[in-house]
Design goal:
The structure is a single chain. By secondary structure, the chain is mostly helical. It contains 4 helices and no strands. Helix 2 runs parallel beside helix 4. The longest helix is centred in the first third of the chain and has 16 residues. The chain is elongated, with a radius of gyration of 13 Å. The chain starts with a helix and ends with a helix.
Length: 61
C-alpha cells in the first residue's frame, strides 16, 4: 500500500512539473517557444520562479 502511495505521489509530481509543456503543446505554440518552455520547466522547476516563467510562456497569447 505504501508503494502505491509513493507511485501516485511521483506521478502527480511529474504532471505538475510537465504542466507548462503540456499547455504549450495544447495551445499550439511554435517550436521555439515550446522548446523554451520545456527547458525552463525541466531545469528550473525547483525555483518556483522558473516554473512560473515556463507556465507564463506556455499560456501567453
Amino acid at each position: 500500500m505504501l508503494t502505491l502511495k509513493w507511485m501516485f505521489a511521483i506521478a502527480i509530481f511529474i504532471l505538475i512539473i510537465s504542466a507548462p509543456t503540456l499547455i504549450a503543446i495544447k495551445t499550439g505554440k511554435d517550436k521555439t517557444i515550446s522548446c523554451t518552455v520545456r527547458v525552463a520547466s525541466l531545469t528550473l522547476w525547483w525555483t518556483g520562479i522558473g516554473w512560473l516563467y515556463a507556465l507564463f510562456l506556455a499560456a501567453k497569447k
